[in-house]
Design brief:
- By secondary structure, the chain is of the alpha+beta class.
- Helix content is about 65%, strand content about 15%.
- It contains two helices and two strands; from the N terminus they run ββαα.
- Strands 1-2 form a two-stranded antiparallel ribbon.
- A hairpin with a 5-residue loop joins β1 (about 1-10) and β2 (about 15-20).
- α1 runs antiparallel to α2 (about 60-90).
- It starts with a strand and ends in a 7-residue tail after the last helix.
- The relative contact order is 0.14.
């Protein structure tokens, strides 16, 4: 069994890990949360492109936009690290032929 980095943080922004086989309830919730986070990141990118293509973006709007982009990038980085670790762990598993 390997630990899975979950797509959310605990208190004080510390990472949360799940120990298990990856088939349980929390794993399914984590998969759903990752899906939502990836979808929101795509929407944020589209919205950012729209805002930057126009004129009249205030300093406050730009600051807000950059904060949301940072949050989204942090979430996506966590997802990438989690998936990369799971892929590396899967590579260490023996292949069982049936």
């Amino acid at each position: 069994m390997n630990g899975r980095l979950l797509p959310w943080t605990g208190s004080e922004e510390k990472p949360c890990y799940l120990i298990g086989d990856g088939d349980g309830y929390v794993s399914r919730i984590a998969d759903q949360v990752e899906g939502v986070q990836l979808g929101m990141a795509g929407s944020l990118l589209d919205h950012t492109a729209e805002l930057l293509s126009g004129e009249g973006l205030t300093k406050e709007e730009l600051h807000y936009l950059v904060r949301r982009l940072i949050e989204s990038l942090r979430e996506i980085k966590r997802i990438a690290e989690s998936r990369g670790a799971r892929l590396a762990g899967a590579a260490d598993q023996p292949i069982v032929e049936t």
